Amino acid sequence: MAISLQVIDAMRRNAILKAAVGLALAAVFFGTALASDPAPLVPKDDAAMLAAFDRAAAGLDDFLAKWRKPPAGAGSFSVKVGLVDTSTRPGYAVVRPGASPGKFVEWFWMINLREEGAGFAAEIGNDVAYLDNVAAGQTIHFTRPDIADWMYVQGEKIVGNFTTCPALAHASTEERHQVEEQLGIKCD
Q1: Beta strands per DSSP E along 69-155
Q2: CB of 188 within 8 A of CB of 165?
Q3: For range 66-90, the mean pLDDT
Q4: What is the pLDDT confidence band of residue 153, given thresholds at 50, 70 and 90?
Q5: Regarding predicted confidence, which is higher, 23 or 140?
Q6: Rounded CA gap, 112 and 82, in Å?
Q7: Does residue 71 carry a pLDDT above 70?
Q8: Are 145 and 96 in contact (CB under 8 A)?
Q9: Does residue 47 carry a pLDDT above 60?
Q10: Are 152 and 160 in contact (CB under 8 A)?
Q11: In Å, how far from its chain's centre is CA 60?
Q12: Does residue 168 contact residue 175 with C-beta atoms inside 8 Å?
């Protein structure tokens, strides 16, 4: 059975887009080998970030409906969850958006989302930059109110991802322009 050139081209574009999204998000939020400086640190009381959390919460029901029954061309569903290191098992705690736990919160894009009991489980989808007790790929359990942001790819467009622009406001001009170009977004 032959695969048409259109299908191969669409698959290639989708793979390139997914790679660009993943690399850009990792570089912006968590620092990786691709980023020589750590991710921009956003103050816990940043008004734009708190508004982004609210915007994401307002659209969460629609996101979850699309995740449960994806429309044609939709994929790469992920959610953002905040974690802090703790000295008790399991070594971390989940932090709700807007909460002030008195500790440094690192925000992670969670992949391979699934429902478990009354909540969710997913794997940390990016490198860990600041915390000591979690690792990329580790399964984390959380509830709906713990979700700070969400995103998915529809065709070649990223939907959601409300926290990127507030984070980029704390990045260098060069980093901001690079990520805006990679993600196809424009932040004010």
Answers
A1: 74-85, 92-95, 106-116, 119-124, 139-142, 147-154
A2: yes
A3: 96
A4: very high
A5: 140
A6: 17
A7: yes
A8: yes
A9: yes
A10: yes
A11: 14
A12: yes
**What pLDDT score was predicted for residue 102?**
82
Beta pairing, strands 119-124 & 106-116: antiparallel
Domain boundaries, the chain: 5-183
The residue ranking higher by pLDDT, 138 or 34, is: 138
pLDDT for the residue numbered 103? 85
Q: How far apart are CA 178 and CA 151, in angstroms?
A: 20
Residue with tokens 């999204």: 21
Residue 16 CA to residue 31 CA, distance in Å, equals 20
Find the length of the chain: 188
pLDDT digits (tens, 9 = 90+) for 164-177: 988 888 888 898 88
Tokens of 82: 């905040």
- In the chain, where does DSSP find H-type helix? 5-30, 47-58, 60-68, 164-168, 173-183
Predicted model pTM: 0.78
Question: Are the C-beta atoms of 118 and 161 separated by less than 8 Å?
Answer: no
List the one residue out of 128, 152, 175, 150 whose CA is nearest residue 52: 150
Cα separation, 125 vs 108, whole angstroms = 7
Asked if 165 contacts 179 with a C-beta cutoff of 8 angstroms, the reply is: no
Ramachandran bin of 98, using left for φ above 0, alpha for ψ from -120 to 50, beta for the remaining angles: left
**Which neighbouring-strand residues pair with 121?**
114, 141
Position 13, amino acid = R
